[in-house]
Structures are given as structure tokens and as C-alpha cells.
Write a structure and sequence with these properties.
The structure is a single chain. The protein has 84 residues and is mainly beta. The chain has one domain: SH3 type barrels, CATH 2.30.30.100. It has 1 helix and 5 strands; from the N terminus they run ββαβββ. The radius of gyration is 14 Å and the shape is globular.
Length: 84
């Protein structure tokens, strides 16, 4: 029997970020860092082409989840580390 350790999602690092997409949309939401230490590592050390934002605020949406292609992001501004 394999005793796999389940991740403790209550201790997962999350950060609020604001980003701008290539079409000019400003998006604010939370990224889950997982094992990464900083927001920048989601873009530089992860091969996944998408970023997932939760509890998103835009002109059109509030409190939703967005999955955004990293190639469509112009800039990202991380805010304070919210929690572990």
C-alpha cells in the first residue's frame, strides 16, 4: 500500500496580483503559488502556458475564476503575501 502524503491546502501560499492583458484588460485576483516561493516563479520556472486566478475582479466579472494564457499577459504586479 502506498502512503502518499496529501497536500495541505490550508497552508498553501497565495498572493493577490494585478495584471494587464494584451487587449488592455486590468485583472485583479489571487494566484496559488503551491511550492513556488514567489509570483515571478510561476512565469519563469513553470512550463504550464496558463495561469489560474481566483476571486477575480475585472470590469465585467467579480469573484470568478479565470485561466489566462501567459502569452497574453503584458505585466503582473504582485501585492503582499496573503497567507500560507
Amino acid at each position: 500500500m502506498i502512503d502518499a502524503k496529501k497536500p495541505d491546502y490550508n497552508k498553501e501560499k497565495i498572493n493577490r496580483v494585478t495584471l494587464k492583458t494584451v487587449d488592455g484588460e486590468i485583472v485583479s485576483g489571487f494566484v496559488h503559488l503551491g511550492t513556488k516561493g514567489r509570483v515571478s516563479e510561476l512565469f519563469t520556472k513553470k512550463s504550464d502556458p496558463f495561469i489560474v486566478l481566483s476571486n477575480v475582479c475585472t470590469k465585467k466579472n467579480k469573484g470568478t475564476v479565470l485561466i489566462i494564457n501567459k502569452l497574453h499577459i503584458v505585466w503582473v504586479e504582485p501585492e503582499e503575501n496573503i497567507g500560507y
